[in-house]
Amino acid sequence: MPDRLPPLTALRAFDAAARHMSFAKAAEELNVTPAALSFQIKSLEDHLGEPVFKRLNRAVELTEAGRTLAPGVEDAFQRLHAAWRATRRLHDTTTLNVTAGPAFTAKWLAPRLYQFAQAHPEIDLRFIASLRIMDFDRDEIDVAIRFGYGPDPDLYALPLAFEWVTPVMTPDLARAYPTPESLKTAPLIFDDSIDFLDPPCDWPAWFRAVGIDHRPLHGPHFSQADHAVDAALAGVGIVLGRRALVIKDIYEGRLVAPYRVALSTTAHFRFLCPKGAEDRPHIRAFRDWIVAEIDKTASVTESLTIIPAADVAPE
User: Fold this and answer.
1) 258 close to 178: Cβ distance less than 8 angstroms
2) Which CATH class is domain 162-265+297-312?
3) Could you report the per-residue pLDDT of 150-177, keeping only the tens digit for each?
4) 131 partner at 20 to 30 Å CA-CA among 27, 60, 144, 167?
5) DSSP-derived pairing of the beta strands 188-191 and 305-308
6) Cβ contact 224:209 at 8 Å
């Protein structure tokens, strides 16, 4: 039996027919006639020297040879399509596909995009706001901004800034609750999206950081961090605001952080892309813009006393 592969058109016809288990549906997918598709399948069988389908009455079944061949052919075409898409993207420096979590997209990226669009009108940004870890090749992603501990093997990973949390509120609420001790009677908001942090960066941990033994139990809980921040902006209560999600509001005065004590975590946002892609013009422009935007609000962090969460973790 020769090792030479059959024609690509025959393998493509077989792949479609094996996935649909129907010559008619496979022909429709490939935009050929059923007769043309049957001819390609017969060509592959002649090349192999045995049938890959059992022709039944109004149906087909894979033979043992067909069942052996199908997974490899399907995988090969998927890899070929992925490689083709990735290669085409190498020449596209006008479209940038970015994935980030919903909260970071809403509270960090969206409010600043006008500046990026003004500076780079040639780049068309497309955002996928999702917590799902997306595949750069399969999902055609250029840049991912992810929060957590890492590491990120086989990727270019740039730490954007280490994260801290501190109580933030409207200026009116800050006047009503002027000291950390007064927070014992304040309306507190709970951001459950950071419950995974270890050591915890929650209300009990922050109270320990300022020398107060208090474990608040009551108040609205939000599974999405941006919703918790929106509630604080509306004056509903006081939230432990995460740096990335509240720093612009603090910098511009919509929220205040009056107590000047923050808890830090080793979890952080990272700018990620495939290794070697970081210096492609549109990716480099987006990365440099993010770093510059972070630097603009650095004075907020400089005004805080930052205590590692590990230093106040319960024994």
Assistant:
1) yes
2) alpha beta
3) 889 889 999 998 899 999 999 999 999 9
4) 167
5) unpaired
6) no
